[in-house]
Amino acid sequence: MRLARFSPGLAAVALAAMLAACSHTPLPEIPEGLRPRAEPIEPDVAARLFAEVQAERDRLTAAQATEEAQCYQRFVVNACLLEVRDRYRPQLNALNHRDTAVRAGERQRHELERLARVEEQRQQNERDEERARQRAATAVPTEQRQADLDRRNADRAAAAPGNAARAQANRSSAQQSHEKAVADQAQRAAAAPDERRQYDERVKAAQERREAQARREQENKDKVPAQPLPETPAPPSPPVQVR
Asked: How much is the pTM?
């Protein structure tokens, strides 16, 4: 309603000044690394792309909010708001498309993983069936297995008397070995006192010999050494006669 107070020329000048003021802030550029992905995307790559898209969306939203706040200080508020939103809308839409492309890549990866699991299960089933066929082809018929079992039972029954005799012989040998060991142990126990007595006697005799030797050495030390005998003078030589 305020435009009615001004002439058309003044209104045009005011609108031009308002647009110039609104466009003084440079438009943020979209990073070149963000591109829609149609192929499957790995989890770490998808997380990085989501973070980049969200960071760029936050930056654009903050810049748009700043410019919209400046519009409320202008003369024509609505026109300024529309101009700002028109400038930022394509960039925000592009980010939305990129977000959608990343999610599509994730869905494609999940689908490929599911198909891979299905294929792996199918191959495992085929391997199991092949092993089952091989076991069935190499398995012995039931009648043959029963015949082999009957033959082994008959062999064991035929060998039972001999096995019993060998078992009895082994038990007798073990009993004799045990009785001999008991007798040897009793004999060693009976001979133990005599061996101990002989050992004590040998120790006592050795001790007595050491004590006697010590007494003799002490007696030799206590004896007074004998005085030496006087020397006997030599007889005089006979005189020599001179003729």
From this structure: 0.38
Assess contact for 50 and 102: CB atoms under 8 A.
Answer: yes
Domain boundaries in the chain?
14-138
Report how far residue 203's alpha carbon sits from residue 221's, in angstroms, rounded to the nearest whole number.
Answer: 28
Q: What is the DSSP letter of 3?
A: G
Q: Do residues 109 and 40 lie in contact, with contact meaning Cβ atoms separated by under 8 Å? A: yes
For 99-142, what is each residue's pLDDT tens digit? 999 999 889 999 999 999 999 999 999 999 999 988 887 765 66
Neighbour tally for 12: CB within 10 Å: 11
- Nearest Cα residue to 92 out of 41, 54, 66: 54
- Asked if residue 94 lies in contact with residue 59, where contact means CB atoms within 8 angstroms, the answer is no
Strand locations in the chain (E): none
- Positive or negative, the CA dihedral 139, 145, 151, 153 is positive
Instruction: Break the chain down into helix, strand, coil percent, rounded to 5.
Output: 80, 0, 20
Which two three-digit tokens encode residue 211?
């004590």
